[in-house]
Every structure is written in structure tokens, then in C-alpha cells.
Amino acid sequence: MTEIEEHILRRRKQEVLLQNGLTKRDEEKKPLPEFMHRDSPLTELIEGSLHIRAIYHIFVVILLVLLCDTVIYDFVERGKINIGTTSVIHGFGDIRRGAKIWLLELAIALAFYPGLRLYAGTRKFLVKFPAALKIWSIMGMLGVAVLEVTVIAIPTWDLGKKKLALASSVAVTCEMFRFAMKIQAAAVACAPRCRDHLAKLPTFKHYIYFLFAPTLVYRDEYPRTKKIRWGFVLFHFLEVAAIIFYNSFLWERFILPYWSDYGKEPKVEAGTVVRGMFACVLPGVISFLCGFYCLLHAWHNAFAEMLTFGDRLFYEEWWTTSQFSRYYRAWNRVVHSWLRDHIYRPLSPRAGRALSTLAVFAVSAVAHEVILSLSFGFFYPVLMMEFGGLGLLMLPLTASTGRRFPSFLNLLMWLSFFIGNGLLWSLYPMEFFARKNCPPSPNDSFFIPKSWSCPEIVLKPNWSFQNPFNIIY
């Protein structure tokens, strides 16, 4: 840990102690509150460290180099200038239909509040009728379940019937899960108030704020900043736009040259496939890091600033960890908090820690797979196997060894990121273009990968293995 990181950590602890009126001796006794005024780790590191700021500048330079590469290549080869807009426009195609689906999801989420008022008001009249009150309580739980199922089922049915452009589909499917989790969080928080007839329900203003606040844990009040820094908002939205173009350049320069013709020929050499997979490792990791920065840092900080949301700890320093359990908790604290409060904690007293953890991974893996399947238009559970299979296996393997060999395990973690993202950036495009280029077959199915049968992967003619340790004079 560097001196700057230690200083930031000490400052955070001091702020927590001051806000809670604690002394250092009390620090270990009282748990930290869920929400408090604090910045995102990267905000502190970039502002406080010239070294981290230099790494940020390196990524900006890579973006500029990719832009120049795209412009010059297309100018020389095709006589036109391409700045990546083609891939962006195609990725966000049919945005009007995507907006309609999102508005429907929002309407379903908004319907929860009048339903809550109706449920709480009716309970007051049924207090003297225990049997009717019990039936009404069951109907209330069913009502929440119906809203959650509806906000997921309708977009899923619509996207399954007719495919939407990739980026638009990712946005719509992520939003449907976000609204479903928001409904669940608000329902659980308000249920005790409905049973206590003297407790006040949240206002509609509170609920609307929660729907758009960058958190999935409901509170009537959150730590708020005093003013909105519009320059800060604009800067982060510009970063989001830049990262969208960043990924379009990676797609055009590293994916299309290797995989766009995949399936046009009945056979493809194994060496070509292997070379393409390794070529996707570096852009895959860059895309992974850019996606993290875009969503969990730039996008969340922009919305937090606009809504004067004071707690910006949307993630923790996951990149330094040596334990996969720590990585899963630190990578996305927003979703982790919801999974902890609504799946792990309710299940653990009855099912135990192991089954509760398995349930958390199962829900998360299925949600990710639904997003990818609806976005690409086929079921290919590569991410599910990496995340819900190998990722789950790494939890016990790094639980104790991560403390004893932190440097080695951190190296292993990053190695898994490189390999995993390289496979994702290879296998999904292979399947995508195989379905696009291979001739139709009666055996074509949403659930069976077409790239397994078309094209046929063969070794190079007259290929033979030569032992590299045999020295020929």
C-alpha cells in the first residue's frame, strides 16, 4: 500500500469516527453505517496521486491511438473517414423501440407506490378481522411478486420475439433487473411500516428519488451534498461517451478482422482460431476495465452528483485483492448490498452460509446470462460457466491462501481476468458471426451453439508436431 493510499484510508476512518461520535478505541466495536459522505476510490486516487493520474492518461492516449488507427486505416483502404460512429449507431439501433420498453418498465415500477398506499390503507380497516388481514397480507406479497415478474417478463418476451440492437438491448435488460430490485428493496423496507399502522409511509417524492438514486438499498433519506457541480457531471458523461467509442474502436480493430468472416467457409484452420483468441485477450481486458469505469464510476458519479447523493462508494479497491470473495464484494457494492440484504441474509439462518452463497451466485449468474442471451439473440453460457462455475470454485481456494500469498494470488486473479475476458471476446463473436454467416439448418436452435457445428475446425494440411527441444545441427 502506498503512502497516498494509507493517507486516504486513515482519512476515511477519521471521517467515519467523527460522523458517529466514536473514539479510535470504539472503532472495532460499532459497525460502519450503510451510507455516509465519501468519494469513489478512483476519484480520490486520481486526484491525490500523480501515478494513478498518469495511468488514466495512458488509457486516454490508447483511445486517441485507436481513433487515429481507425481514421487512417479506413481513409487509406476505403477512401473515407470513419471515427467509430458506424458501430455506435448500429449498436444503439432502433433506440425508439428501446425507449418504449424502458418507459413500460418505469411505469410498472411506478405502479408499486399506489399499490403500497392501497395495501397499507386497506390493512387499517382489516385490523379487527385477523383472517381477512392474513389473506390481505398474502395478496400484498403476491402483488409485489407480480410486479417484479411483469417488469422482467414483458421485456424478455418482447426481445425474445424480435431482437433489438446489442447496446440498446443491454441497456433495456439491465434496467429491467434494476427496477425489479428497486421494487423488492422498497417493499421489504415498507412492509414493517404497513404492519405498524402508526408508522408513516414514504412519500412519492422519496420513492421517485430512490428509483433514480445510484443505490439498491432503500432509505427515506440519504447523505446529500449541498450543491450540484455541473462541470463534474458533464465531465463524467463525456467519459461515458468516450468509452462507448473506445469499445467501438476495439470491436472494429480487433473483433471484426478476426471473426467477421467466421462461418463463410465450411472449414477453418485451428491455428486461425487460436490466433484470434489470443488476439482478443488484451482488448478483452481493456474493455472489461473500461466497462467497469464507465458504469460503476463515471455513470454512477454523474447521477450521484445530479441527485446530490453523498455516498459515492459504488465499489472498493477490488484490483488489489488476493481473495475472490473480497473481489465479488468490492467489485460492485451497489448490487452486492442488494444480494446481501435480500438473498444471503434471509437464507443464511435456515440454509447456512454455503447454500446461501450458492444461491447468491446462482441468481447473479442467471441474471447476467439473461442479459447476454437477450442481447446477442442466443444462449451461450460462457459467462455463466466462468462466473458461476470457476468463480465459485475460487472462493474456497483463495480464502486462506490469499492471506498467506497475497501477491501471488493477486497475480492469479489478474491472469484469470485476462484469460476469461479473452474467451468472452472470442467465443461470443464466433457464435454471433457463425449464426450470421453459416447456412440455415433444421437443427438451428436458440439454446444450441451453431459454432459447434459450423464451420468445421481442422488442422493445417500436412501438420505435424516438432519437438522444440530437439536441436538439429
Automatic annotation (TrEMBL):
Q: What is its main location?
A: endoplasmic reticulum
Question: What GO biological process term is on the record, naming one?
Answer: cholesterol metabolic process
Looking at the keywords, is Membrane present? yes
Q: Which organism is it from?
A: Papilio xuthus (Asian swallowtail butterfly)
Pfam families xrefs = MBOAT
Subcellular location as annotated:
Endoplasmic reticulum membrane
Q: Which PANTHER family match?
A: O-ACYLTRANSFERASE (PTHR10408:SF8), STEROL O-ACYLTRANSFERASE (PTHR10408)
Q: Which family does it belong to?
A: Belongs to the membrane-bound acyltransferase family. Sterol o-acyltransferase subfamily.
Its membrane topology, per UniProt? Multi-pass membrane protein
Q: Which GO terms describe its cellular component?
A: endoplasmic reticulum membrane
One annotated GO molecular function is: O-acyltransferase activity
The gene for this chain is: LOC106128493
The membrane spanning regions, by residue number, are: 54-76, 97-115, 135-154, 228-249, 276-296, 354-372, 409-428
Specify the protein name: O-acyltransferase
What UniProt keywords are attached to this protein's entry? Acyltransferase, Endoplasmic reticulum, Membrane, Transferase, Transmembrane, Transmembrane helix
* Active-site residues per Swiss-Prot or TrEMBL entry: H368
